[in-house]
Amino acid sequence: MATRDDIEQAVITYIGEKLLRGKGVEEVTPTVNLFTSGIVDSMGAMKMVSWIESTYALKIPVVDLVPENFQSPAIIGDYIARLLGN
């Protein structure tokens, strides 16, 4: 089972490979605010949620689809680890 740190690193890798192009940001750190930095917009957030659901075989509850749960790779790692029972 994926650990919180594994999830955080996977999110960083996903963002770097799929969402970072043309954003003017060279590196994604665990604590970067993905929304205020411009790395992730609403479409990117939905793509990321879809990727998370398919990668970790879970369904994120609609009530949890709020920016606070997806602000940074570290926060996403914490959130997904909780959903997975880690």
CATH superfamily: ACP-like
**Nearest-angstrom radius of gyration?**
12 Å
Strand content: under 5%
- Overall shape: it is globular
By DSSP (H or I, 4+ residues per run), the number of helices equals: 3
Could you give the count of β-strands?
0
Q: Which ranges are low-confidence, i.e. pLDDT below 50, for 5 or more consecutive residues?
A: none
* CATH domain fold name: Non-ribosomal Peptide Synthetase Peptidyl Carrier Protein, Chain A
Structural class: mainly alpha
In the CATH scheme, the class would be Mainly Alpha
Explain this structure.
The chain has one domain: ACP-like (Non-ribosomal Peptide Synthetase Peptidyl Carrier Protein, Chain A), CATH 1.10.1200.10. With 86 residues, it is mainly α. The model has no long low-confidence stretch (mean pLDDT 93). The chain has helices at 4-19, 42-56, 73-83. The longest helix is centred in the first third of the chain and has 16 residues, at 4-19. The N and C termini lie close together (9 Å). The chain contains 3 helices and no strands.
Question: What is the compact description of this entry?
Answer:
The chain is mainly α and 86 residues long.
Topology:
Elements: H1 4-19, H2 42-56, H3 73-83
Helix pairs in contact: 1-3
